[in-house]
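Much of our argument rests on the idea that a fold can be written as discrete symbols. Part of our work consisted of pairing the sequence of a single chain with a tokenised description of its backbone. No coordinates are needed to read the tokens, only the vocabulary itself. The record that follows shows the chain in one-letter code together with its fold in token form.
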Amino acid sequence: MLEPSIDDLQTKIKSKYTLVTIAAKRARQIREEDKKVLVDDPKSNKYVGLALEEIMADKLHVKNDSN
């Protein structure tokens, strides 16, 4: 079972596509660049799980490029 749940994640980021894209990019950053995880006491051992936890903790946001 995915934790945090997709329903909970979509309260933070509405679009599933955007959610997946942000989580994948952040997971890649953590893995390749040895970036520090932005949440205290993460539950996940996997990079995507860590990225999803960061989203739930409001550490990652969608940047709006509205003109």
Observations:
- The chain is about 50% helix and 0% strand.
- The chain has one domain: 6-56.
